[in-house]
Amino acid sequence: VNWHDGSLQGEHISQSHKTFGQIAGLFQDQDAARRMDANTIVYTVQWVSPAAHEGALLWGNTTLEPGRVADEYFMTHGHFHQRRDRSEFYATISGEGALLLMDEARKTWFEPMTAGSLHYIAGNLAHRVANVGNIPLRLVACWHADAGHDYSEIAKNGFSARLLCRDGIPALVGEARE
Ligand SMILES: [Fe+2]
After folding, report:
1. For a disulfide at 67, which of 32, 52, 74, 176, Cβ 3.0-4.6 Å?
2. Chain-centroid distance, C-alpha 103
3. Does residue 97 carry a pLDDT above 60?
């Protein structure tokens, strides 16, 4: 691990990017989203998977670029774990962010992310990261190899609140749901 930016070097490392086009549908202002460059890389994830047996762990990092769609911060897709008993650690390397958490009753809140902040994500909480600063937000994570990703609830219903820039400050704004 390069502790300057959280990046990984070595064997068994995978990497993926998310472009704006892949996550454009997450944002509230779809007119503003259509004006964005679909090829912009919003975030990059690296992870190392040394083993796949029961109880194995994965380690990874995420770099989330700064930016907004209208007044909504760039963010990751967000997910529940398929196995709701599989928790996860996030730790912030650099940048300013917000860790959005939502329970299965769809109550949403967030924890501020700053260099050195450590976040324990209980296995039954959906989690998403937003970059509320002007530089890349870099974090490392450790989670169970068999946690799985359940994107369906977030893809269908989103989180129950959005993190918007209000007077220059991040504010969690609830949205009316049908
Ligand atoms: Fe996760």
Report:
1. 74
2. 15
3. yes
